[in-house]
From TrEMBL, chain B:
<keyword id="KW-0813">Transport</keyword>
<dbReference type="InterPro" id="IPR027417">
    <property type="entry name" value="P-loop_NTPase"/>
</dbReference>
<keyword id="KW-0547">Nucleotide-binding</keyword>
<dbReference type="InterPro" id="IPR005892">
    <property type="entry name" value="Gly-betaine_transp_ATP-bd"/>
</dbReference>
<dbReference type="GO" id="GO:0005524">
    <property type="term" value="F:ATP binding"/>
</dbReference>
<dbReference type="InterPro" id="IPR003593">
    <property type="entry name" value="AAA+_ATPase"/>
</dbReference>
<protein>
    <submittedName>
        <fullName>Glycine/betaine ABC transporter ATP-binding protein</fullName>
    </submittedName>
</protein>
<dbReference type="Pfam" id="PF00005">
    <property type="entry name" value="ABC_tran"/>
</dbReference>
<dbReference type="InterPro" id="IPR017871">
    <property type="entry name" value="ABC_transporter-like_CS"/>
</dbReference>
From TrEMBL, chain C:
<dbReference type="Pfam" id="PF04069">
    <property type="entry name" value="OpuAC"/>
</dbReference>
<dbReference type="InterPro" id="IPR007210">
    <property type="entry name" value="ABC_Gly_betaine_transp_sub-bd"/>
</dbReference>
<keyword id="KW-0732">Signal</keyword>
<feature type="signal peptide">
    <location>
        <begin position="1"/>
        <end position="19"/>
    </location>
</feature>
<protein>
    <submittedName>
        <fullName>Glycine/betaine-binding protein</fullName>
    </submittedName>
</protein>
<feature type="domain" description="ABC-type glycine betaine transport system substrate-binding">
    <location>
        <begin position="37"/>
        <end position="304"/>
    </location>
</feature>
Length: 630, 344, 317
């Protein structure tokens, strides 16, 4: 695999070396492995890093109410966020059921038009019908609080990053790391600093979502046409006037898009923060997970998807519409909507709607599948475990850590240059230093198997979808729903079908990561210029030749991007698999915040996951920067 | 009387440590070689010229000749590397930011190739922008902006948004915006090259009309020779950042400074640009001529009917003084000989 | 709600005046006297849910409190005492270390007496295995049968199926110290263990698993407990080197200090709450197998067992 993957890296001029180097690397790695392989001794339960983190925890515990860092810093942050959450909650629940439904509908109508208003109305009523109103409002409260903070913090930073060169340059690696950090790894440090509860949940969500705010805002400001700025400068605008009268208004649609993305990310994180006592729909899902109740999770998952769709439509609609174009009519409509909301809010309508639940049929279906497909699912699980997971895991866990570091660095140098080699090598060495080598390698094995399966199936579906419009049309809603569903939810059907196993994590990871792969492949293929396809067809290519010799090579950029995105998502999901028997680093993290004596190990595992993420991201990104036609 | 704009030994070098280029032996290198040796690009090289009050001064050159850089250096939208710039005798390069802003707000306005309008503001608010940032009150600036829109023929479009207008109309907005601050100098950076040819001609007529009406000093950048000849009182030809020739349209067509300029003006119909002074000959001794003379500044094309209709050569006068005569023999080469040097 | 925000704002001012915010600043104070909200931690096993269902039902229906149940893991629940997000843990399994931290050192929690349930953790196999391999119930013979318990996750050894990673367990240490040829695999939840156990019984598949009493499943199906080296006081002092069986835990209740000090009728009810394993198993059975919601199950049990719960209701309420 290595040889074919690295081939296109070569620069013209050194074709021979380019071909030989990867082969040499593979041979050297294999020889090195055969000579130095170890017996995969289990990780110590008491590594220096664990002890260090435990000491940190003990110090924090002892000084939480005495150290000035906490008294004047961290605790105030927590208090401030608590006040914000309370204020948002009084605002939203103060409206009452009817009032909030009306308010969201009116907001959608004013910002995004009446179609979106209908979607919003239907969506928020659905929370009532599903019997999940309170939970949905709680989720909304946390999401709104986190998004408010993200915008408040992220937009100014984004502007600064776009305007001040060194700020942008300094932020880039930080944001990179924040974005590849699996959601799960945040939680333990969050509880350490901010304890459990809504404030910690909001802060964790903020950290997860704010990179999107910053990145997209920065992009929006950078994209403001130079000519417009120049014209305004030529008229004598001051720096501040340029910002407030030119740059920000022109970047507004992009900034609204940033808010849109921030909301989507926040929503998926808020659900996971149920693990640290955040209220809302996440609690239902955690509960369903604990009871292996696929149906209950389905209802809650549906509510989350509905909320995501409504929020997405409203903000996307707002981004499309131009502000400052509000004729008198729009203001009048907005005023009327406000009055209507107030009136409706005063009506005594409760959320006690007739219950609609999909839990029973979904559970019946799951039960039927469990009963009748047991042999097939069992066979599949055992085949993948024994045929792919176990051999790879054995190789990785018996590789001495220094050999792995060397191979990773060499591979990094080959695909992305010395920088990539340095970063990837350091990340690998860091994992070893944390004392979690075996677990990290087990996690890595699961991730690699999952990404290979995801790419294989994703590429097939992508090709199929690019070649058949009916298939693409049918697939689209599935992909949409799969992408808005919080990652968490996927564990459930997987665990119901495959029990507590690594394969469950593989399946969940696949379900989580395949939509973007399919999308990117489909788009990559469809983006191949029609003229090229026409020319190749005119030359007499068969449809397969067209695919293999023209379309796939030309869509390589999309494929590599898909691999890069996919691998980070897969890692996030495989780690979550620790909740359901996939073991390794994910389990260490879970154990870390559920067993006091394992805290240090859990935190170390969190860092190991981050390092693993950096390693995988750098290697695949090195790839795609090195040669992807972009 | 001082010139409105004076430019002396202006340099703009892009690249690492640009100041080392000016005043050293590097300065003499051709562009490509300079770039290879230092990584620097000399966009404007030692340019000097002066623009008189009320004049229409055109800077013409192909893309990459440095003309857009040059015009941006005048109000320091691009910071020059060295040299002097004076506006109404005041050295621009010595201005502090506040003073520079005053210059941009009140004395020099600019019209851009891609309009640079603010898409989120109505046409009226776009035109009023310059006044708004000066702190002019809402009613006053809207009144002035309305007047300017009327001046450029856009009354009735005040509440529309830029994207609702055609390219030509958008550039009228850009023009009105520049006029609204009542500047003494208007800078045009290829304002019409993004427009259709027909609309371009309308807009050129518009500029001529406005120049006649408001009497500003105009500095006009273009790559279009026809446009330069139509508009310019004087034309400066820029090549690879260097000034090749400055002169009236006639000077350029009649007396190109080098092959570059000659090649440039080769296709220009001489009879449209040149005056009789370029083709007249000395009268033969004792030659009889027509009674009615023609002024030396008459464009050849305008003289055709008379010259062809006359039986005798027509005397050419500069004021009262007779400077030469012209007959059909002189006329014909100017009419047909596009590709040859006109005999002087 | 609004009142609460105002109170918090006032709090922030006071704090600024006297300097610094404590970690629990801004959280709702537990209901003192007034009928406020009682925050019940709900740990992830059905026996606990039964306690919470009945206590929550009585608090709401008989005493007029509002009950907020929070799905939390054990350790996280204890943290909740510190932040004020949790008032009560209704079924605590030992946790000497947490008691030391939160009760003795931080002084944010107090013990509120036993629940009456006897907790017993252990390793089990389905009855058919005990019948077929009579000596399997002694841990010393487990290695002999390790190959029977091999699964895709057990890395070539036998599998010992554990539950939620947050549960009280010494299994990893036990497997190591007893030199057993087994790998501990965490299924992630009680429900997953139960499912595996039921499958093992129904389909006669080998399964070695971590389980505990009180547990409704023991009333339905028979499982055999593996004998481990006997428990002696202090043999589990170092959790990483344990080599003995689990003790019988007298499960108890823990409350946050503030909640206890307020001594509301809610606190008194929780203090009085005591029942048997059979009581709990009955409610768990309602919850798990009869498809009842927590309130339905509690209502049914309350209607049928008035003599049990009547004494819990504080006098004069």
């Amino acid at each position: 695999m290595t040889a074919t993957m690295t081939r296109p890296v070569l620069r013209a001029g050194a074709p021979r070396w380019g071909r030989v180097l990867p082969v040499l690397l593979v041979v050297a790695a294999v020889v090195g492995y055969l000579v130095f392989r170890t017996d995969a001794a289990a990780d110590s339960e008491d590594a220096a890093a664990f002890r260090f983190f435990t000491q940190v925890r003990d110090w924090v515990d002892a000084n939480r109410d005495t150290s000035p860092v906490f008294l004047y810093g961290v605790n105030y942050v927590r208090l401030g966020v608590r006040l914000l959450v309370d204020a948002v909650r009084s605002g939203l629940s103060g409206l009452g059921f009817a009032g909030l439904v009306a308010a969201v509908t009116a907001l959608a109508a004013v910002l995004a038009g009446w179609r979106t208003a209908l979607v919003a109305l239907g969506g928020f009523l659905a929370f009532g019908f599903l019997g999940l109103w309170t939970e949905s409002v709680d989720t909304l409260v946390l999401t709104v609080s986190a998004v408010l903070l993200a915008v408040l913090i992220g937009v100014p930073i984004g502007v600064l990053a776009a305007r001040v060169g060194w700020v942008g340059a300094a932020l880039r690696p930080v944001l990179d790391v924040m974005q590849i950090m699996p959601t799960f790894a945040y939680l333990a440090p969050m509880t350490l600093l901010f304890l459990i509860g809504e404030p910690a949940a909001v802060i964790a969500t903020l950290i997860y979502a704010v990179p999107a705010t910053i990145r997209i805002t920065e992009l929006g400001i950078r994209e403001v046409p130079v000519t417009t700025v120049e014209a305004a400068t030529a008229l004598g605008s001051t720096g501040r006037q340029l910002l407030t009268k030119v740059r920000l208004p022109l970047a507004r649609p992009t900034i609204v898009l940033a808010v849109n993305q921030t909301i989507m990310m926040a929503l998926s994180m808020v659900v996971i923060t149920a693990l640290i006592n955040a209220p809302g729909l996440g609690q239902n899902i955690v509960q369903a997970l604990e009871r292996v109740n696929v149906g209950a999770a389905f209802d809650a998952g549906l509510a989350i998807v509905v909320m995501a769709v409504v929020l997405d439509r409203i903000t996307a609609g707002a981004a499309r519409r131009r502000a400052g174009r509000w004729g008198r009519g729009r203001w009048a409509a907005a005023a009327a909507a406000l009055v209507a909301v107030v009136v409706v809010a005063l009506l005594p309508i409760g959320e006690d709607l007739p219950r609609v639940s999909f839990a029973a049929p979904v559970n019946d279906l799951t039960g039927w599948i469990e009963l009748h497909w047991y042999d097939a699912t069992e066979w599949l699980k055992n085949a993948v475990s024994a045929g792919l997971l176990d051999p790879l895991e054995t190789v990785l866990t018996t590789t001495p850590w220094w050999l792995f570091v060397l191979v990773v660095a060499a591979f990094g140098a080959l695909v992305g240059g010395w920088r990539t080699a340095g970063i990837a090598g350091l990340a690998a060495a860091g994992i070893a230093g944390l004392g979690l080598w075996q677990h990290a390698m087990q996690t890595l094995a699961t991730v690699l198997v999952t990404i290979v399966l995801t790419m294989a199936i994703g590429v097939l579906l992508g090709i199929w979808s690019a070649r058949h419009d009916w298939f693409a049309a049918g697939l689209r809603p599935v992909l949409d729903a799969a992408q808005t569903m919080p990652s968490f939810v996927y564990l459930l059907p997987a665990v119901a079908l495959f029990g507590a196993s690594r394969f469950t994590a593989v399946v969940a990871g696949f379900v989580y990561a395949f939509p973007p792969v399919v999308r990117l492949v489909d788009r990559g293929l469809r983006d191949v210029p029609a003229t090229v396809v026409e020319a190749a067809t005119a030359a007499g290519s068969t449809s397969w030749q067209l695919l293999w010799k023209v379309q796939l090579p030309m869509a390589r950029g999309g494929l590599l991007l898909a691999a890069n995105q996919g691998i980070v998502m897969v890692l996030a999901m495989v780690v979550l698999g620790g909740l359901v028997g996939a073991g390794a680093l994910g389990y260490d993290v879970v154990a870390g915040f559920s067993q006091r004596e394992d805290f240090g190990k859990g935190l170390a595992a969190g860092f190991a996951i981050v390092l693993l993420g950096i390693l995988l991201d750098r290697l695949t990104q090195g790839f795609h920067h090195a040669k992807g036609p972009r | 009387m001082t010139s409105t704009i004076t430019v002396e030994h202006l340099w703009k070098v892009f690249g690492p440590k640009p100041e080392r280029v000016v005043g050293t032996e590097l300065a003499a290198l051709p562009r490509a070689e300079l770039r290879a040796r230092t990584g620097c690009l000399a966009a404007v090289k030692d340019v000097s010229f002066a623009v008189e009050a009320g004049e229409v001064f055109v800077v013409m050159g192909l893309s990459g000749s440095g003309k857009s850089t040059l015009v941006r250096c005048l109000t320091r939208l691009i910071e020059p590397t060295s040299g002097e710039i004076g506006i109404d005798g005041e050295p621009v390069r010595e201005m502090n930011p506040r003073r520079l802003r005053e210059l941009r707000r009140h004395r020099v306005a600019m019209v851009f190739q891609h309009f640079g309008l603010l898409p989120h503001r109505s046409v009226l608010d776009n035109v009023a922008y310059g006044l708004e940032i000066q702190g002019v009150g809402r009613a006053e600036r809207h009144r002035r902006a309305g007047e300017m829109l009327a001046l450029v023929g856009l009354d009735g479009h005040e509440q529309q948004y830029p994207e609702q207008l055609s390219g030509g109309m958008q550039q009228r907005v850009g023009l009105a915006r520049a006029l609204a601050i009542d500047p003494a100098v208007l800078l045009f950076d290829e304002p019409f090259s993004a427009l259709d040819p027909l609309i371009r001609r309308d807009m050129q007529a518009e500029v001529r009309r406005l120049h006649a009406e408001v009497g500003k000093t105009l500095l006009f950048i273009t790559h279009d020779l026809a446009e330069a000849l139509t508009l310019g009182d004087r034309i400066a030809v820029l090549r690879d950042g260097e000034l090749v020739q400055v002169g009236t349209p006639e000077d350029l067509v009649g007396d190109p400074a080098d092959d570059y300029v000659a090649d440039f003006v080769r296709d220009v119909p001489r009879s449209d640009v040149l005056t009789l002074k370029w083709i007249m000959r000395d009268p033969a001794p004792g030659e009889t001529v027509e009674d009615q003379p023609l002024p030396a500044a008459t464009v050849i094309r305008d003289a055709i009917p008379r010259v062809l209709g006359a039986k005798l050569p027509i005397p050419v006068v500069d004021g009262d003084r007779r400077v030469g005569v012209v007959d059909a023999d002189q006329l014909l080469p100017a009419l047909i000989g596009h590709h040859r040097q006109v005999p002087v | 709600m609004r009142l609460r925000t105002a109170a918090s704002a006032a709090l922030i001012l006071t704090l600024t005046a006297c300097g610094g915010a404590t970690s629990g600043a801004g959280e709702t104070a537990p209901s003192a006297g007034a009928k406020g909200t009682v925050n019940l931690a709900v740990n992830p096993w059905v026996g606990y849910e039964s306690n919470a269902a009945v206590v929550g039902y009585l608090l709401e229906k008989k005493l007029g409190y509002k009950v907020d149940k929070k799905e939390l893991k054990e350790e996280v629940s204890w943290q909740g005492f510190e932040t004020g997000e949790v008032d009560v843990i209704l079924e605590n399994w030992g946790h000497a270390d947490l008691k030391k931290t939160y009760i003795e050192q931080k002084k944010v929690a107090v013990e509120v007496g036993k629940t009456g349930n006897k907790g017993l953790i252990g390793w089990y196999v389905p009855q058919w295995m005990a019948d077929q391999y009579p000596d399997i119930t002694d841990y010393k013979n487990l290695n002999k049968y390790a190959s029977l318990f091999k699964t895709s996750e057990s890395k070539g050894k036998g599998q010992l199926l554990d539950g939620d990673p947050s549960y009280v367990t010494n299994d990893v240490a036990l497997v190591n110290t007893l030199k057993l040829d087994y790998t501990v695999v965490f299924s992630g939840s009680e429900a997953a263990i139960i499912k595996a156990a039921q499958q093992a019984t129904a389909q006669k598949k080998p399964l070695l698993f971590y389980f505990y009493e009180p547990q409704w499943l023991f009333a339905k199906e028979k499982y055999a407990r593996i004998t481990l080296p006997p428990y002696t006081a202090g043999c589990d002092a170092d959790p990483k080197k344990v080599a003995c069986d689990y003790p019988i835990d007298e499960l108890d209740k823990i409350a946050s200090k503030k909640f206890a000090d307020a001594n509301s009728t809610a606190y008194q009810l929780i203090k009085n709450f005591q029942w048997t394993n059979d009581d709990q198993n009955l409610v768990s059975d309602y919850l798990t197998n009869q498809g009842m919601s927590a309130d339905q199950a509690a209502e049914k049990w309350v209607n049928e067992h008035e003599s049990t719960w009547k004494p819990w209701i504080p006098a004069g309420s």
